[in-house]
Amino acid sequence: MRTFAVASVLIAVVSAGVQVERALARQAPPAAPQAQAGGNQAAPALPVDEIIRQFAAKEKEFKLARDNYTYRQSVKVQELSDGGGLGGSYEMVSDIIFTPQHKRIERVVFAPQNTLRRISISPEDDRDLRDIQPFVLTSDDIDKYSIRYLGRQRVDEIDTYVFFVSPKTIEKGQRYFEGQIWVDDRDLQIVKTYGKAVPDIRGKGGNENLFPRFETYREQIDGKYWFPTYTKADDTLHFSTGAQRIRMIVTYKDYKYFAAESTIKYEGVTDQPQQKAPPKKP
Known about the structure:
Number of domains: 1
CATH class: Mainly Beta
Order of helices and strands: EEEHEEEHEEEEEEEEEEE
Strand content: 35-45%
Largest sheet: 10 strands, antiparallel
CATH architecture: Clam
Structural class: mainly beta
Distance between the termini: 50 Å
Radius of gyration: 20 Å
């Protein structure tokens, strides 16, 4: 059976009405990365290693913060003919919420019948949707990747540093990101990614799990964090039995800060549960 990995790392960079220029990300990450056409190869204001250290630290902060937010996630995958005609489709809308016990769960709110025929959704798809699509290159993960500085590039109204990222080694059973990232040169936060989840999986008996290239944008939430809000892929997957074009769109909406009641103990004395107030919006 052929499988398609929903490789979305899901992320939209639309900051306070700033539309990020999507055309910049539609080219595949080069095998031997070069600074993109129109990019500025001038040296950055900070040493490259320091930029990497700072954005990786920000990414860890982002990951921890996002774990305290609820949101609505929408995934749509479509099979397309060479001419763009629509074949089968898969769609799921779910709310990422917390139980009263502060357990993070996914509650499905809309899931029409899956009509995919030539591709299917695999466990790797779900894993990528959770761990790779909202691509987080944190200080905990940075040593797993080779990171090459490509230059500076202005993306609409955002001045960015551009890096090419690839895993140093691929360990069995692990998932990684390979592609380009755009880092805001002021806040040193990742605002856009373009690439794919790796590795593709080609197993015995014709089982294949291939992953499309995707572009992901982030939006600033609560005036501080750049969270994923939009991912799109329109790619052709080359299976051994033939090519299949697919389109995928993933959105993340309605981010809301969640703070559970907590009980604090000091030397055997227990305080009453208190509700944290959400951060004030600008």
